[in-house]
Write a structure and sequence with these properties.
By secondary structure, this protein is mainly alpha-helical. It has helices at about 1-25, 70-90, 95-110, 120-135, 150-170, 170-185, 190-205, 215-230, 235-265, 270-290, 295-300, 305-325; strands spanning about 50, 55.
Length: about 325
């Protein structure tokens, strides 16, 4: 932790020194001239867009594999099982709020026509359900929960988790994402250990941003947060689902903040400016989040060079804009 904080402090010192050098040669009212680094590629997993209403899910129907008939049957089977599991989880919500929250979000994702399913979002939430099945398994030495789960609730949870696994792996995008997540966890043990804590802090904070994250996105992020809080990277799929959602969400927000700021520094037509005004308000709130959580964001990005360089640029951009705007009230 000390090494991470020292590195963050060093990089912020570099930013401050660059600002001092720029201030000696140009008017501080001019925009920062440093070219932006390349925006890192998004991670496999939950996708977002920033626009009207702020950060929202970029949901799209996934393409099923070759056996569509089997997939549609599994979908119908899951809908029935999840309805039963939802009833049991509601009754047990006082004792098991995490399970109840995950089941509630999973039910909302599965209760749509087959052609409208976002299999990646379903996988991300279902990974948490599978984690609970393993954690409460009375027949394994890897059980991590103390005390038994109500037999009927556990039985329904097992049924849903089994059908879920067969269903989501029938989508090509999910199969590739699972493979990538397992490989990432296996090949990057040091990175996983370093990002684990800031990932937990940022994911939880992002789930609570009601001003600029829309309700559907918050609910999905909250469900992923529940699973990550419980299992972290000990379950590779919950760790990677949380990592992808957080990385993609932060990237989409930071791109929007930079782009909207740049548009407002130029000359635009009245119609475009009016449209931008609404997004500008949301982008300012999002920029405050990035600025206020800069230390955790840089700790999360530190072992990933492209991500680190991008967020250093974004945070520098936000702070330079704040300096040009004058002191905060």
């Amino acid at each position: 932790v000390k090494a991470v904080n020292a590195e963050i402090a060093r990089r912020f010192a570099e930013i401050d020194e660059r600002r001092r050098q720029e201030a000696a040669t140009r008017d501080l009212g001019e925009p920062v001239s440093e070219p932006a680094p390349d925006v890192p590629n998004p991670e496999a997993g939950v996708a977002f867009r920033f626009g009207e209403g702020g950060l929202h899910l970029a949901r799209s129907a996934a393409v099923a594999g070759a056996n569509r008939e089997t997939q549609t049957k599994l979908h119908a089977r899951l809908q029935g099982l999840v309805a039963q599991l939802l009833d049991h989880s509601v009754r047990a919500s006082n004792h098991h709020p995490g399970i109840a929250a995950l089941v509630r979000e999973y039910a909302s994702l599965i209760d749509v026509p087959f052609g409208e399913i976002d299999a990646i979002d379903l996988w991300a939430v279902g990974a948490g359900l599978q984690g609970y099945v393993a954690a409460y398994d009375p027949h394994t030495a890897h059980r991590t929960m103390s005390g038994p789960l109500e037999p009927e609730l556990y039985a329904k949870l097992v049924q849903v988790a089994r059908v879920h696994a067969g269903f989501v792996l029938g989508f090509d995008d999910v199969e590739k994402t699972v493979e990538r997540g397992l490989r990432f966890a296996q090949e990057n043990a040091e990175i996983v250990a370093e990002i684990g804590e800031p990932q937990a802090v940022l994911l939880h904070e992002l789930a609570g941003q009601s001003k600029w994250v829309d309700a559907a996105a918050r609910e999905l992020i909250s469900a992923i947060d529940v699973a990550y809080t419980q299992f972290g990277w000990k379950v590779a799929e919950t760790g990677y689902a949380a990592f992808g959602a957080l990385k993609n969400g932060l990237l989409e927000v930071s791109k929007a903040v930079v782009v909207i700021d740049d548009l407002f520094t130029g000359v635009v037509g009245k119609g475009l400016r009016k449209a931008l005004d609404a997004e500008k308000i949301l982008a300012i709130a999002a920029a405050c989040f990035l600025r206020d959580h800069a230390v955790d964001i840089l700790a999360f990005a530190r072992p990933l060079p492209e991500l680190r360089d991008w967020f250093l640029y974004v945070i520098d951009h936000i702070e330079a804009r704040d300096r040009r705007s004058g002191p905060k009230n």
